[in-house]
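Box 3.1 — From sequence to structure: T9SS type A sorting domain-containing protein
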Amino acid sequence: AVKQANPDAVFILEHLGDYSEEKDLSEYGMLPWRNMNNNYSQAAMGYASSSNFVDSDGKGGMFADGWVGYAESHDEERNFSKVKDYGEGNLQEDEAARMARVPLVMAFAHLIPGPKMLWQFGEMGYDFSINYCQDGSISEDCRTYRKPVPWTMGWDEDPLRMQAYEGAADVIRLRTTYPEYFDAANVTVQNCATSVFRGDAPRQIRVSYTDEENPANSIEIIIVGNFSATSSINPTLSFPNTGTWYDYLTGDKFNIRRSQRAIPLASGEVKILTNRFLENPTPVEETEAGEETDVVVYPSPTENMVYVNTADEIYSISVFDMAGAMVADVENSDEISLAGLSQGNYIMNVETSAGSSVHKIIKK
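Predicted structure (token representation):
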């Protein structure tokens, strides 16, 4: 009935069954989930055992058009909770080292072809256990309890968390801006089927895209990462052409004079190298604390109504409690009622034609 109403409808199934059954569903056009949580948790922690992302033929695993692959979900332990508790080397005590691995894990989870799911706050290295209780203890009885959310903990002002977030955003932006590059026919993975981390043969995703109608849009991309948590590496990579290459994540450019060149990688580092410059714009400009903005929210404190003053078109206003739950929202309006809400502090998000802004408000 759904397909009759909308032939383009997509069915995504949280259906973790036998492969033969999933294959039948996939061939029928449905997209079963594919759980790769343990593999990516192992890699994130710096452990090579059981960390393969694909099967021995370079496909399967995370490389599958007919499944939705994921490193995290609502039912699985968070990757970076495991990194914090069990990580190799200095990962348990060094938050900077942990956060530096977020873009690495994101790149190898989301730049391998096939549909993907990103679970909430994975882009910031969310490290509260799925079994975290509100009193700070850990118990399976708390599995479905509310968990802390980033903006109540100041992560949006934490340089390490924001660096992880921005690196993750760069990865996702590459995939969504140039989806044609990441069709299965254009991508090969290297050393991702193994359960070892080799300094001379690191894990790679390679893209070779040819645009017959517009050759200037053709591109070669090398994604290379060092999953070791204890050592830097200096692997020699093969480049498909000489000339100018670019580091997508930093904007730096460098010259390749021979078909092979050593590329140093720190522990937990990922590089995305392209033979053509790709714009990597930040979609929303950051606003420094205390800086004047074009969105004014008033009054605060308030007993009921809150008003928004801006020259831009207002798309939506959303209000969240301090646990992160949305408690009120309205579209295409410059005011919102807080009637029925308890006294206390709230977070208001205003979406306009110029972007989004976040404001703290108090209900009297």
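Summary of the box: The chain has a mean pLDDT of 91.
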